Amino acid sequence: MLTRPTLAKLAAGAAATAIALVAPTAPAGASDRTGGGELRVFAEEPGHLVPGNVNQSESLIVDSVLYSGLVRYDPKTLQPVNVQAESITASADQKVWTIRLKKHLTFHNGEPVDADAYIRAWNHTAYGPNAQANNDFFRSIAGYADLQAGPDPDGDGPQQPAPPKATKLSGLRKTDDRTFKVTLSEPYSGFRTMLGYIGFHPMAKACLADLKSCDEKPIGNGPYRIEKWEHNKVIKTVRYERYAGDKGASRRITFTLMDNVSDGYAAFEKGELDVIRKLLPGDKLQEARQKYGAGLIEVPMASLQRIAFPTYDARFKDKRVRQAISMAVDRKAIIDKIYHGAHVPADGFVSPVFPGARSSCAYCTYDPEKARKLLAEAGGWQGGTLELWTNAGADHQVWMAELGEQLKRNLGIDYVVKADLPYTQYVEKIHANGMTGMFRSGWNSDYPSMENFLTPLYGRNGSTAVTGWSDPRFDELVARGNRAATAEEAIGFYRQAEDMVAEEMPAMPVWYVKGSTLVSDKFTNAVVNPVGGEPVLAGFTRK
What is the DSSP string of 257-291? Predict the structure, then answer.
């Protein structure tokens, strides 16, 4: 069985992550800033809105205002900052974590956000048969294995796997209404950092009772509550006045759902939108720089654009084929031609935004001669016309075609770009190991750690391990990093694991993303978080 990938990382645009950020308190006496008006945001149709099953960029941006978590990531330092948590403390061995919640926290239906709210959410997401996209994030908590079905005895045959042995994580224990303890299977010093990811957000009791309805009209706990979701048209939210944290600056946040960024840009120019929160089309980016100046916010992101190889396809089994293709690509030329130099050519598998990142990818160096030699050693390309896959609606086919031209010129490989599948169908095809060629699989961090660029993408049970490649030695190195006593000590193990990936090349990094968010001059306090590059919408303040 294939673990469902973290879809945010296959995002249709440039960035996605779970952001538990809320707005700064508005200045007293500023009626517009406290009354707020409406903030109109470009978005695409979400798949799900229940946090345990949310990891698409289309869903994350909506949930970033509907839900709040235990911590958020500071946009400047990237460090976790308490939001709903009053305190998060670890035992001396960093294996038992005590979480105490702030007072007076409520869901939008009035239910308390208490210890039970987090425990029920985590148990639901961790229980394998519930098939929640964020299931894998609970792997580190004691008892996780007992919540998963047994191995499939006959693959695609009629026999069913053994059912889970338990329905609740043994590592979760409530000590009082506002406090619960989390026991991990192994010590993990980065656990608090993980907790800003959306999969760890709470769930209302009413939501658990009717999950389908809650997915359609979420019972959140964030600064905004949902009013209406008219599919493929609009999602309307309004400020939740009982929110115990900093109130949202706008009275309403409306997400206008469109098929592609180009339509969003056209709507922005007509004054119909206030925010476009994705990378703009190549030519429009340069135009926006000249036309809107400071209204275009460009920040380095903890995000990586990459091309994945389906190693389950015999044509890509030999790592020399993968290495050759990577070395035949001039990353800088693509970035300069299509994006006017907006991004940074990738020379590693971890975003340079994070501590420990460094140049690790020798096969990311543009060297057509060596690429041809490697391909010849592997017996040459025997796969016919190479299919380059991406999703429709986000203009990725433009740079994919440029990459294909380079492969044709440098390696003599004919290509065709396949960009006809809508995002959801594209992701489903990836999930099913159905890719018939190289495919775009961008990665946007869930939380600020090197480990988050490794385990999900290349671990044996990684939530977005969609290439078919795995290695137990890699898993052990990451595990040793997780067990390290300090973050500095962990980096050494994570780097060794990254070096394995850099040699095997199950995916080729293309560029480190610089996020672009276009904001109307009617708003101020526009902040974009490098962890995912998403705008902190609750803080946008009308002038």
Answer: E-S-HHHHHHHHHTTS-SEE-SPPPHHHHHHHHHH
Contact 106, 244 (CB under 8 A): yes
Q: Using the structure block, give the residue that is written with the tokens 């526009």.
A: 526
Nearest Cα residue to 324 out of 380, 388, 401, 384: 380
For the entire predicted model, the pTM comes to 0.80
- Is 66 within 8 Å of 204 (Cβ atoms)? no
Single-letter amino acid code for the residue at 463 = S
pLDDT in tens, 426-485: 988 998 999 999 999 989 888 999 999 999 899 987 878 999 999 999 999 999 998 888
Q: Which residues pair with 73 in a beta bridge?
A: 80
DSSP secondary structure letters along 379-444: T---SSSEEEE--TTSSHHHHHHHHHHHHHHHH---EEEE--S-HHHHHHHHHTT--SSEEE--EE
Domain architecture of the chain: domains with CATH: 301-514 (3.10.105.10)
Tell me the pairing of strands 438-440 and 386-389.
parallel
Give the SS3 label for residue 85. Answer: strand
- CA-closest candidate to residue 316, choices 254, 222, 379, 270: 379
**Three-state SS for 153?**
coil
Q: What pLDDT does 328 receive?
A: 98
3-state secondary structure of 145: helix
pLDDT-derived band at 56 (thresholds 50, 70, 90) equals confident
Residues with Cβ within 8 Å of residue 31, at least 6 apart in sequence: none
Residue with tokens 């308490």: 82
| Residue length of the chain | 543
